[in-house]
Design goal:
The protein is an alpha/beta fold and about 425 residues long. The chain contains 16 helices and eight strands. The strands form two sheets. It has a four-stranded parallel β-sheet. It has a four-stranded mixed β-sheet with strand order 4-6-7-5. It is elongated and about 70 Å long.
């Protein structure tokens, strides 16, 4: 089963390269958007949402009560410890002027703080924001009453002037977001994914005991194996991504997904199979480092090695065959002129030159090209990683040689 991703712990995606990569290994991405929350997306997210339908907003209302109960129980059972570490100074009142100036962050990590906030948080400590509709009314009042939250804060991290926020310690906000995500994932079968490298997994259950383990120490948080499909996906697609993916237009991602949809879903199936095998084999693993090693080994075997085999199968097919046939059909001066003319050639000049070249090649080249395409298509159809090869080639800068090759195919009537 191809699983929809469930982004956490934020509403707005923080890393442009990450969300573009996710669109290459997940069929869809859901994000938690509480009722009344106003979304403000940059252009690349808008393109993925509107042109591909990749991003879907989901209201967490059905999971709020359960997640709130977990945190209420933790405060009830270990409230003094929680307040001593994560309490905010002063409970604030209806007219309190505090500001959210930090992002929810995993315990033990340095929270990102907006240094340009106009107001200093209560007691000078950074505050992260929880949207009121993400919590039950009982939880909100408990947090206010115990000094774990302040009222009526504004969010300078998101430059948000539309909402009233509940300000809490960044670590407490993170843990609650994980609990809410886990509850929502259990109701939807979505796969929690995040662009935050230090994240604790939100896949496995987040009850009061796990919250206590993560926030207060004691028993270690369990090693999550439910998110293996996400790990396999991101590691496998990294094999073929350009170094500056953030600068690749989102429209290219949309084009690849739409043009090669059957190959994309075959690749999804391969990810699911690898993840299922790992989940069965590694059920008793307790070491995060060991789990990571096994996942990387599986990705190497099932995807990197298969990609190398596919590249080998493609040798002598497609563009390589075309350039060979051209160089052996024409005399040396014509071939040399073609090679030197590749530098700086663009647009219609390439297409016009290519059309003239193909006319000279004749039926022999057409036959070679057609056969090459049939060999190429057969190799791609038989490989579970053919979509990765499409990504590798589709996201690389187009060179003059590749433009010539495509023009030759079109002129010869063999397609791309």
């Amino acid at each position: 089963m191809q699983r929809t991703g469930l982004y956490y712990p934020y509403v707005h995606f923080r890393d442009p390269a990450w969300i573009k990569a996710a669109a290459l290994y997940l069929p869809e991405m859901a994000r938690v958007v509480p009722r009344g929350f106003r979304v403000s997306d940059p252009d690349h997210v808008r393109v993925l949402r509107e042109d591909l339908g990749f991003i879907q907003d989901i209201d967490p209302a059905g999971a709020v009560e359960a997640a709130s109960r977990h945190l209420l129980r933790l405060v009830d059972e270990r409230g003094a410890e929680v307040r001593s570490r994560f309490g905010v100074h002063g409970t604030g009142g209806p007219d309190a002027v505090d500001v959210v100036n930090a992002e929810p962050s995993p315990p033990g990590t340095q929270a990102f703080v907006d240094d340009h906030a106009r107001f200093v948080p209560s007691g000078g400590r950074p505050l992260a924001g929880l949207y009121p509709e993400e919590m039950s009314p009982e939880l909100r009042e408990t947090l206010f009453g115990t000094g774990l939250a302040v009222r009526r804060v504004r969010n300078t991290v998101d430059r948000d002037t539309y909402h009233a926020w509940v300000g809490v310690d960044p670590a407490l906000a993170w843990v609650y977001k994980c609990a809410l995500t886990a509850e929502l994932a259990g109701r939807t079968a979505f796969l929690p994914v995040t662009d935050q490298e230090a994240a604790h997994t939100a896949v496995d259950p987040w009850d009061a005991e796990r919250m206590a383990a993560v926030l207060l120490g004691g028993a270690p948080a369990p090693v999550g194996t439910g998110d293996l499909a996400g790990r396999v996906g991101v590691l496998s697609v990294r094999c073929v991504l350009p170094a500056r993916l953030a600068g690749v237009p989102a429209e290219k991602i949309v084009e690849l997904r739409k043009k090669y949809e059957p190959e994309f879903f075959a690749y999804m199936d391969a990810i699911a199979r690898t993840a299922a095998d790992l989940r069965e084999e590694l059920a008793d693993i307790r070491s995060p480092q060991a789990l990571d090693m096994y996942v990387r080994q599986a990705v190497h075997k099932d995807f990197e090695v298969e990609l190398v085999k596919l590249r080998e199968a493609m040798k002598g097919v497609g563009l390589q065959t075309i350039t060979t046939s051209v160089s052996t059909t024409f005399d040396t001066p014509t071939s040399a002129a073609l090679a030197s003319g590749l530098i700086g050639t663009v647009g219609g000049t390439v297409a016009g030159s290519a059309a003239g070249i193909v006319a000279g090649v004749g039926a022999t080249a057409v036959g070679i090209l057609g056969g090459a395409r049939r060999q190429r298509d057969a190799a791609l159809a038989s490989s579970p990683v053919s979509f990765l090869l499409r990504v590798e080639r589709g996201l690389r800068p187009t060179t003059a040689v590749r433009r010539i090759g495509r023009a030759l195919r079109r002129s010869a009537g063999t397609g791309g």
